[in-house]
Amino acid sequence: MAERSLYETAVEQFNKAVKIMDLEPDLADVLRRPKRCLIVEFPVVMDDGHIEVFTGFRVQHNIARGPAKGGIRYHPDTNLDEVKALAFWMTWKTAVMNLPYGGGKGGIKVDPKKLSKRELERLSRRYFSEIQIIIGPHNDIPAPDVNTNADIMAWYMDTYSMNVGYTALGVVTGKPVDLGGSRGREEATGRGVKVCAGLAMRTLGIDTSKATVAVQGFGNVGRFSALLIAKELGSKIVAVSDSKGGIYDPEGIDVEAIIEHKKTQGTVVTYPKGQKITNEELLELDVDVLVPAALENAIHAGNVDNIRAKAIVEGANGPTTPEADEVLFKKGILVVPDILANAGGVTVSYFEWVQDLQAFFWKVDQIRAALEEMMTKAYEDVMKIKEKYNIDMRTAAYILAIDRVAYATRKRGIYP
Fold this sequence. Notes:
Elements: H1 6-21, H2 25-32, E1 36-45, E2 51-62, E3 68-75, H3 80-96, E4 102-109, H4 117-131, E5 140-144, H5 150-164, H6 188-204, E6 212-216, H7 220-233, E7 236-242, E8 245-248, H8 255-265, E9 275-277, H9 279-283, E10 289-292, E11 311-313, H10 322-331, E12 334-336, H11 338-341, H12 344-358, H13 364-389, H14 393-412
Parallel strand pairs: 3-4, 3-5, 6-7, 6-10, 10-11, 11-12
Antiparallel strand pairs: 1-2, 2-4, 7-8, 8-9
């Protein structure tokens, strides 16, 4: 069987929800398709004077509820199918959180590790100028994603501002705090995962202070998820991993110490305490909560039978295939889906955008409290639908999100 593309996986999840909620086929067809896909081929002058041409993408999946919102990634494997799938997911993620946004995503097919800082800046500025025809604080607001960061967002904001002739702080989110960024943004996705992990444990009657947790992936999301689950829920982190492998210690891992180790050594694998394990072995540990926060399709038909966690809280986008979802549901494992569990990032991006538009900035405690409140409300909304239809949480989250976007589409009508 040919491997399913990421976009096909996303559409399959959508179709499953549509069938249960009995959405009109015409409307389902409108919501299934991206509104616009922009492909740009653009030249960049490299440090030695030669010119390279790069391919970039920006997809706006749906804007019925507000401007498109979604990150931009730099990766050698970035392609239109992937960007379409991620934009599709952003539509439902913003709707699950009840944010006044639609879904968008962007990317450049490039290995940023091979570029100097000056080349990276020229690439970033040229790409943003190329996609500016569909970007703006009221039509499409990008953010960081894989291999992009606050510095790149500052270049984007400056490029757009130079082109329009005034400083437009609200054109991107994830900027440096002193340049219109929001406090609490760096930790936001991990904090959202922490909230969902705590709520999932409450749902299952697990005492958070006695719970064991394994986190696959130790980038921004995995790192903050592990740190906040340990510090604020009091749970024991027994395993963490990065792309090179993982560490397992049933007595518990000192998350702050392993974060420092990763900073200096570049990997968690050389951490002196605990035993070395593979990423596959981490997924199959007997823990209360598993947080897959690495790449898509980590839990699939080949390993799902070996998953022993009581709850899975998805820090990554698309870490579970549809086949694996079916098996997990039958096994009674609670899966808090990506479009809910990792929506903390886009929620604090929303707070940043609101602050930029008002030119009035909030304290970090206000941001954390507002995020906790919104994540809890979204979790409870999804749970009600899960119980109503006796379905898995992912399908319930899709039903909630699709219903909100469908409502907006019906009310707005088709223009002209």
